[in-house]
Amino acid sequence: MAAFVLFPAVIAFSLYSLDQQGFFQIDNVEIKVQTTESQKNFVAPRLQKLQAKLDSVKGISLWKAPLSQISKSLREEKWIKNFQLSRSWPSTIKLVIEPDTVTLLVLSSASGSETSALLPITKSGRVLERISSDDAPNAIVSYDESLVKNERVREGAINVIKALPEKGRMSSTQISEIGYDKKEGYWIKLLQSETKVNLGEEQFEIKSVRIAQVMEYLESRNLKARVIDANLSKKVLVRLQQNP
C-alpha cells in the first residue's frame, strides 16, 4: 500500500520539477483552418491577427494555459463558426477553426465618407466589419443596404442562396448580384447573360429548378431572356431581349 501511494507522489513531484524547469512552457500555438480556396483571401488577415493575439500565451506553463479565457475570446470572433481548442503536451496549444462562410458582399456607402465599403455577410447571417476588395472572398454581391439593416430581409437573401443548386445554370457561381424589392420580393442577376430573375418571397428551391429548365429551353432555341419572373404560383414568365 505504501508503495502504491508513493508512486503517484513521485510522478507528481517529477512533473512539478519539470514544470519549474520550464519543460511545459508553451512555445508553439498551432492553428489549422478548415476552409475553401475561395475563402482564403478573406480568412488570411483575420488568421494573422488571431495568431498574434494567441502568441501572447507563449512562455506560460501549459498546465496554466487559460483555455476558458481563450475560448471566450474565440466565441466573440464573428467570423468563426466552430473551433476546437486543446493542449498538446509538452508545450503546444492546438486550435482548429471552421470559419463561417461568407455568402454575400454588400457594397455599402461608408458613414461620413464618399467611399464605399464591402460588408461581408456570413451563411449564418452575421454582418462582419468592412473589408477591402483585396480581402474579398468569392461571393455574390449586393448593392441593397436593406440586407445589412433589416435582419428579416437578410435572412431571406441567405435562404435564396442556400436554395440554389451546387451546379448548373442556377448555381451560386453563376449569380452576380442579389437584391430585394418590397413589392416583388427577392431577385437575382445571372453572371453571363445579366438576366434578372424575380423569385418572390418563398419556395426558392422549387423556383430555382423551374428557372433552370426554362433557361435550358431558351438556350436550345437560341433565345435570350431580359427578365425571368418566377414569382407566380406555377408558371414562369419570360421577357425576351430585343434583337438589335
TrEMBL record:
Residues 50-97 form the POTRA domain. Keywords: Cell cycle, Cell division, Cell membrane, Membrane, Transmembrane, Transmembrane helix. The keyword Transmembrane helix applies. The keyword Cell division applies. One of its GO terms (biological process) is cell division. InterPro entries: Cell_div_FtsQ/DivIB_C, POTRA_FtsQ_type. Residues 120-229 form the Cell division protein FtsQ/DivIB C-terminal domain. It comes from the Bacteria. This is Cell division protein. It comes from Pseudobdellovibrio exovorus JSS.
